[in-house]
Known about the structure:
Distance between the termini: 37 Å
Strand order of the largest sheet: 2-3-4-5
Strand content: 15-25%
Helix content: 25-40%
Amino acid sequence: MTRRVHEVMTRNPVTVERRTSLAEAARVMRDAGIGDVLVVDEGRLCGILTDRDLVVRALAEGRDPAETTVLAVCSAEPLTVGPDDHVDEAVDLMRRHALRRLPVRTGSGELVGIVTLGDLEVERDPGSPLASIAAAVEEVRER
């Protein structure tokens, strides 16, 4: 029987409002021990900001972390999955788009979790989705 996303996702994802400074978002990530935050506008998902975004899209471009908002450098309108979607669907979406994490939203748009490569590790087997997703990420980087 195929597992559903809600069975493997991380519930209550960490969010920041779109006008949050990059410096504050970095502190939130540090304090929570995570590498990403979901960006919201009045509770509605509008982006995702990763530790890599902070380095590549902000610091490397000389942006002031105290003055730049997360909305200015986050990945806008990220792909999402639903809590009742099959894990295989999430894996396929992550593989096709070389993603390491997917926000989880209900049909009404409520943000209820995030599914990450770490979450999928529990599904790991000799033909591990983790291995194929990691390979896809490397392919995208080489392009």
